[in-house]
Amino acid sequence: MTLVIGVDSSTQSCKVLVTDAATGAVVRQGRASHPDGTSVDPEAWWTALQAVIADAGGVDDVEAWAVGGQQHGMVALDADGRVIRDALLWNDTRSAQAAADLTAEFGADELARRTGLVPVASFTITKLRWLRDHEPENAAHVAAVALPHDWLTWRLRGFGPAGESPRGPVLDELVTDRSDASGTGYWNPATGDYDHELLVAALGHDALLPRVLGPDEWVTDAAGRRVGGGAGDNAGAALGLGAGPGDVVVSIGTSGTVFAVSEERTIDPTGTVAGFADCTGRFLPLVATLNAARVLDAIARVLGVDHAELSRLALAAQPGAAGLQLVPYFEGERTPNLPDATASLTGMTLASTTRENLARAAVEGMLSGLAAGLAALRGLGVPLERALLIGGGAQSEAVRQIAPLVLGLPVEVPEPGEYVALGAARQAASVLAV
């Protein structure tokens, strides 16, 4: 049996799967938590990854590996390979003004054309501008900029800070993949090249960026094992799910994401759809919402029930909840871009205001927010034929039954799994076949 490792280094935790390269069957696994917060010392990720690999039986019998991970986080390195400051993660919003400034300087249309993105605080380019504006001494020392999965790949291959790693601080050995590069705001998905003019506009000077490996390219670690380019988390999940053109993945977690596998690049100057690439050579247009599974949490609390009972109540009501409608913007919303919005409940009559209808309205309202993402993808010509429903919210029977009615697509609900790590393992297996 040939074994490979797939890693998912997410915001909250690190997961490692050792799988059979031929069948994808999970042979061993491990998991560890990451620190809370929106600004994190990358060393915590490295410590967790080493511990989890050890818990999963180590790498001595493994022939290839790849790392998937959270997108957008800024890992700034000096010339000696040392991390200059804590990494600003995707969910750190301090760079919102930097996003607005960059958009004003270049224009939304131009940025969408050049990078597939209109800056928001999530993206790496805005964090570099924040660093330039608020910590100029740190910005001046930046010799290279990596993303979380780039940096972990580099460390696991044996590179790292001077005097602390066997292969030393060889910054030229930083590598990434198309999917994670496409979330930076300074990479062009049409040409496959970095846009250094935008990088300089953000950071104030040029810096080394990880080499972008193609879908079948690989490098080696210190023991000669093949190492794939890895993936951003959404692209890793798509690969792990086996999603292809025509598929749209609807992930119902704390927040919601809707992303489709597409043969064609998308450009959306409104910024609603992020024009990401995937890790197979295709594209992964994505829409994010702020309000997803927590909508169900909130209404379950109001009704004083658990999620199983909320589901039963919702299915006891008729479609449309007798006119009761929940607009679920409990924490504002990103799609549509209404950061200061609040939730509202309308259509209340003596007849419609029942526990069953309120539960139904919660499910329909949450799914309607995700359906708006599907509409945005359709508006850009992305073909959508099947929805794959994943995440904690997908375990609700009411969500499973109501989703096809609201989304307007056939819906499949894969078994729960660590799909980012599975995708990384699948990539690792594929580079062995090259």
TrEMBL record:
Gene3D superfamilies registered for this protein in UniProt: 3.30.420.40
EC number: 2.7.1.17
Domain spans labelled Carbohydrate kinase FGGY N-terminal: 4-217
Site (Important for activity): 8
Record-linked InterPro entries: ATPase_NBD, Carb_kinase_FGGY, Carb_kinase_FGGY_CS, FGGY_C, FGGY_Carb_Kinase, FGGY_N, Xylulokinase
Catalytic activity: D-xylulose + ATP = D-xylulose 5-phosphate + ADP + H(+)
Top-level EC class as recorded in UniProt: transferase
Any matching Pfam family: FGGY_N
Annotated keywords: ATP-binding, Carbohydrate metabolism, Kinase, Nucleotide-binding, Transferase, Xylose metabolism
Domain annotation Carbohydrate kinase FGGY C-terminal: ranges: 249-429
Residues that, per the record, bind substrate: 71-72
PROSITE patterns cross-referenced by the UniProt entry: FGGY_KINASES_1 (PS00933), FGGY_KINASES_2 (PS00445)
Function summary: Catalyzes the phosphorylation of D-xylulose to D-xylulose 5-phosphate.
NCBIfam families noted in UniProt: XylB
Stated family: Belongs to the FGGY kinase family.
Protein name as catalogued: Xylulose kinase
Native source organism of the sequence: Microbacterium yannicii
